[in-house]
Amino acid sequence: MTASQSAGRPRDEIASRALKDAALELVRAEGYKAVSIRAIVEAARVSRQTLYNRWQGKAELVLDAMFEEAAQSTPFPGSDPEIPMRDQLERFLGAVFEHMARDGDIIRSLIAAAQEDVGFREAFHTRFVHPRERIVTELLEVAQSRDELPADRDVAMLSTFVHGAFWYRLLTGQPLDETFAREIADSVFAV
Length: 191
Prior knowledge:
It is a single chain. The chain is mainly α. The protein folds into two domains: 3-54, Arc Repressor Mutant, subunit A; 59-189, Tetracycline Repressor, domain 2 (Orthogonal Bundle). It has helices at residues 3-30, 37-44, 48-52, 58-73, 85-116, 118-145, 155-172, 178-189.
């Protein structure tokens, strides 16, 4: 690697961070639809081409920024053998719901964008929806291996029910809170 190549790499990371931060700040303040690519690149102080070198457009940029932030603030369940999996599910859902309470409007806008753009729909599912589905399914598999959940329960279907419940509430504007997280965990682990 030449000196010029290594010098360029930090700038790429700085530009990417600036774009993600600007996108989230603007979208949270003004709403997804009201924010243009132009506004984002001006706030980030980079060129439009810099954005398009990394993302296909606004939806992918906002998705990546949200995914990165959510990954940092949401605890990964299943790692503590001392905590019952039912409690870990409730904690995980509580953290997810906290994120959705703050950014529910943005997530609803991304869902709408995914309906209009097949390529983005695939990216949204692959990078945002599927990882969360996998976390819940794995948590339930661990619960079965610990005999905290009956072996005859279909964990993939339970995971679908969990996600269906919160996506429905998100899309219909109903509360996503600690109480709902507890109710879901109680229902999943009810014998």
